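=== RUN LOG ===
request id: a7f3
mode: sequence -> structure
chains: 1
length: 377
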Amino acid sequence: MYYEEKKKSKEKLMLYCFMVIIIALLLILILKMEVKNETTTVTGYNAEKVNREEQSINSTKTTENPTIINKIQNSVNAIVGISKLKQSGSSIFVGQAEQKLGLGSGVVITDNGYILTNQHVAGNKYSSCYVTLEDGKVYDGSVVWSDSNIDLAIVKINKANLEYLELGDSDTIGLAEDVYAIGNPLGMDFQKTVTKGIISSLNRTIKIEGEKENVYMEDLIQTDATINEGNSGGALINQQGQLIGINSVKISDAEGIGFAVPVNIVKPIINKLINEGKFDEAWLGIYGYDKEAIKFLDSNIEIESGIYVAQVALDGPLASLDIKEGDIITKVDNTEISKMNDLKKYIYEKNPEDVIQLFVQRNGKESIVEVKLLAKP
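=== RESULT ===
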């Protein structure tokens, strides 16, 4: 009897222990599930947050970068190759091919075949060159206008329905703006090369030492976008895909310093070519420098604004008038002039035989000189 009761008591104890173990296991399982649910919730929140951030980044990419890329891709079709000698199919990797062939770049600026480039690429007015379009076809080009002082030229080819670049406003650009240089850095083998940079400085004046005389290029756009040989005459464009400058010079002994000629200076010429089919250039007949350039000539000369008259052409419209070296031109027809390119642009807007007024300072006194412009010889 005692043995059976002891046996029953032992069985009850074992059953009790078994139930305790089962309950403990259930509690552990429930606790783990709760922790897992909390982790899942947190992970879900993080994933949602990351997803939102990715969507935001992707949204930015879709609304900005592709737009710029598309504009650049559209712009490159307006970049052409220009050479003084017709290429015979040989590679540009021949030694100094750029010098032998006169290879450079140009920018189509109208749909009927006007191309803007450098004077040192295309040559002087009435000279000939060869223009290679983006499809590889070569056309005879004729230089219809050229100015060595600002290193710009306009070439005409007989071709219609061309893709061309819209002209931007080079007077409104600012420091650190993103820009893109497009050209053919080593001839047509690397045509339509795009490099990105910023506007590093504005209104730069540089001295270029020539064999016979030094040349001073004024009011240039400085950029760190890479400009190599063959890029000369190519486009400097803004983020809207508009042409703001023509790549012209790279400082060979420095990295990241290149220069472009602002496009606004030639807008009057382009407008006349488009509207009238010709450009009869008026001539003032002076050589002058603004305050940025004059320091290269004589550090003792200081001017606050205006154009310092360095030389008067003996056969020019000013030869018989009361204006001489050392005078400072402050205004033309009541328009203030502070840069040499401002004066050039103003004269480009005029025609031969037009009469203008020059406001001239000499020894602290101002006088007004009337000038009848001549046709540029």
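=== NOTES ===
The longest strand covers residues 193-209.
Residues 2-63 form the longest helix (62 residues).
=== END ===
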